[in-house]
Amino acid sequence: MAQLTCQDLSLGYEGREILGHLSFSVQAGDYLCIVGENGSGKTTLMKTILGLHAPLRGQIITGDGLKQNEIGYLPQQTPVQRDFPASVREIVLSGCQGRCGLRPFYTRAEKRLAADNMEKLGLSPLAGRCYRELSGGQQQRVLLARALCATQKLLLLDEPVSGLDPKVTAELYQLIADLNARDGITVIMISHDISAALRYASHILHIGDRVFFGARDEYPKSGLFRPKGA
Question: N or C: where does the chain have the smaller number of CB atoms within 10 Å of the terminal CB?
Fold first, then answer.
């Protein structure tokens, strides 16, 4: 059974449809890149998958043992969030909040999980540093470690390399690819970087006036693919 299935999904605000009749499925271990024009509904789709927006029509079904609170999310950052006055350790550990329920403290196992994810992403030396003192690339690693504390199954990433320089962008893309290939974590990523999508993703979802969903290698044949500079 698919880990995530969207069936005849229509999305919008206040009854106004911006995306209609969308159907696709994601298997465990897939790496799906969502591409398309600005305003086509990419972020709205991601927030609907998270349960933050209700679809106008259709349904989203989780399977393969995936629960709604087992989805890790890395949203686009606002300037206020970049200036958040908390330590790296505190922010990463806050990714365990979905596991806590009404419990007002973190368990030893949750603290160990946060430490392990900081180690995995090369953040252990920064654990005591204030988040707002970090570079943009370091902040994105912190948020990715936080998302990993929420899940070992499915990551939703909204433009995770936005505003980063090419070297840091390449490093972050490789980290995400490693999490997918080595750890088997399903990745759904919104991206404007078509070349990176074609390099790393297993599947592409293009949304807009026309929709494509399929294997990465089929996308260039869809008529929707526009090479950079074309």
Answer: C
Contact (CB, 8 A) for 105 and 122: no
Instruction: Single out the residue of 33, 137, 34 nearest to residue 77, CA to CA.
Output: 137
- pTM for the model stands at 0.91
DSSP characters over 166-229:
HHHHHHHHHHHHHHHHTT--EEEEE-S-HHHHHHH-SEEEEESSS-EEEEGGGGGGSS----TT
119-152 burial string, b = 16+ CB within 10 Å, else e?
ebbebeebbeeebeebeebbbbbbbbbbbbbbbe
Domain architecture of the chain: domains with CATH: 4-221 (3.40.50.300)
> What integer best gives the mean pLDDT of the chain?
90
